[in-house]
Amino acid sequence: MAPADPEQQNWKPSIERFLGFVIDRNCTHEIIEPGDSDDCPPKKTRPFMPLDQIQYYFGAHNYSELRGVLAALFSPDDLIPPRDIYPKYIAVFCTLLCIGKGSYIKHFKHHESLSDTSLPFDPASPPAHWPSSARDSSFLHEFCQAQWKFCARVWEDLSDKHYDSEQILPIVSKTRLSGGGSANIWRVKIHPFYNKLISEDDKLVSLSFLLFDIYMGCHD
Q: What angle do CA 198, 200, 206 make, to 5 degrees?
């Protein structure tokens, strides 16, 4: 199943408000290369949109903004309820809206393989149930380029992992403590929504951050 008309009209107020919210006003930035001192702006950053802010934006006031966006995409006889999207397909829906294909959510919402838990998608290997009737052959490529803004990595452990070069690590503050060459130790601050290292035990909290500082030195 695919939408009859996958084009969206970005001039409609609800879609225009959404695009302004995620593009212009509320992005957070991953700090990749900090400035030379606390007084200097970062040398290199990447924008990302914290999922908790999007959830609040779409969920507030009985899903009023989400309902408005859906009404702008579909006719009254073809509307889908907000709960079909919220919360399992929020990142997917945002990505679709950002590339002008919001109405494809009507296809995505039927498949777990196209939900937020399956992100990020691989442009070289379409996920199961990717809409084969999409008019634009670049659809998957465009989606995969835009998805990263909504796919910041959740920190649940300190294991040594390698990530796609496009993967956003939600580091919102980064200060070099010591080291040189390829072995630097950084003190970092993770966006609270993505920091699952915090424990109720204060001792575990302190240990987690000490280990995290050392780990980030190897990840720089």
A: 55
